[in-house]
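Hi R.,

Quick one: here's the UTP--glucose-1-phosphate uridylyltransferase sequence you asked about.
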Amino acid sequence: MKPIRKAVIPAAGYGTRFLPATKSIPKEMIPIVDKPVIQYIVEEAIQSGIEEILVITGHGKRAIEDHFDTNVELEYHLRQQGKLQHLELVQEISKINVHYIRQKHMRGLGDAILCAESFIDNEPFAVLLGDDIIYHEQEPAMHQLMRMYNKYGATMVGCQTLNGNQAVPRNILQSVATEKTGISRFLNVEKAVGHEADGKSAMLGRYVLTPDVFEILRRVQPDENGEIRLADALKLMASRQAVYTCQIEGKHYDVGNQLDYLKATVECALRRPEVKDAFRTYLNQYI
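And here's the predicted structure, written out as tokens:
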């Protein structure tokens, strides 16, 4: 069984839930405290043992490439000003091995993954969606999924049980439990919103896919919006072979919606030792 060395991060979407900001700024570059969303995703992949990352971009996403590139002028300025801590910070970002390819037409997540076929080169691979940030103090979410893949050797779909009213539609999993705690056989996906999603298991934006997913994606019929859905490919795959869902531990933020974005910003700030005490004191004024 081949190890998982590569990850794909789809980042070509328009980010309409964050308009008007995303009219000129990629949604993946919106910061949480002082770090853009996509950097949290990339760091999770690296901490999980991923060696190479492919970001699927689109029109107006050049800022993502610039963020992970070397900025000679900025580094010179920081060195001249003696701001060595900031210099080290920007240099560490540019050391990350990131590749890019454009999704020329917005045809859904499945089409974005198809763009990665030549990069993957017939290996199993990770997929991390940029709208989902998952915080776990001990083990990154993707590492949890990769660990389960190493046991089962099959496609793994990360999920969590929903608690509370869901403001946006979520992909609810239909699955059959196995003898292993937290592991189920994937059957299908359905959309749910509000209280109807409470207590159900939902897809979490983390996947480990086997390379045969590309052949299956080419067979999937586009939906009514002309998009190729990964969920449809997983359903077709599950009719032919084992596909598993895995409960992921950690605090999940869907930063594509405003409320979760604000929660992520506040809670990430409260984890930062340099600002947490002063920030908590400030927040106590409004409690």
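The mean pLDDT is 86.

Cheers,
M.
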